[in-house]
Amino acid sequence: MVSINPRRSVLFMPASNGRAIAKARTLPCDVVVLDLEDAVAPEDKAAAREAAAAAVRAGGFGRREVVIRTNALDTPWGADDLVAATAAGPDAILLPKLSDRATLAAARGHVGSEGPDLWAMIETCRAVVELPALAAAAAAHRLTALVAGTNDLAKEMRCRPGPSRAPLLPALSQIVLAARAYGLVALDGVSNVIGDEAAVEAECRQGLDWGFDGKTLIHPGQIAPANRVFTPGADDVAWAAEVVAAFADPAHAGRGVIRIDGRMVELLHLEEARRTLAIAERCRVAEADAAD
Question: What pTM was computed for the model?
């Protein structure tokens, strides 16, 4: 079975805050994003860049993936961020405000063909319009994840999302569609709610229902609800195991469609069942690690 990394909880931490980076090594999130952009004041950009690179080189993050979010390439810091991040060797580099294929190609040029994977923040109106072209270019530039930047997108749209996030639904759906069309990870935007797990969980549930693989977070208190929601439930795991077992039954050899408990199941469901079991196993390992 193919191993799949869960990205249920993707926590942004300011790279300029050494205590935050140290804390990130102990938190039960799946991904730590060392942020050089929004969380860092202009006068601290250079120091944060050095701190992020040093933290990646020092390691100690265990099974967590470590990503560096750079400043945009058209800022005074973007190019230097990409060079420093590449040298440090994180699991991926997150590009903010990526809006066109030319910028994606330029970023890959700075990172180099052997450099880390790229993730892209989809947080401008142009990025949403250009999503088909961006996603189609993903393989050529090793772009592996699309991240919804809902706060910046809402600001640019001049919309008022509210708890339902209804004005953002078309854009969020486009992100998921583009990710699925080209085999990319799709991560939901951050929740601005802190101190209300029920509200965060509801937003995570909404993201899961829309098809996202996980949730970006801005506070450690949001990790638990994200992990709960994006971990396959017991019923989902049991059904997935049943589907896999049914297709493995010699009686069903060569069949593309079978009946299980009164439901018609196709080979496409088998693929999803295998993915569910793989994610569930990786989540089990992650929970065991967090408990140690």
Answer: 0.92
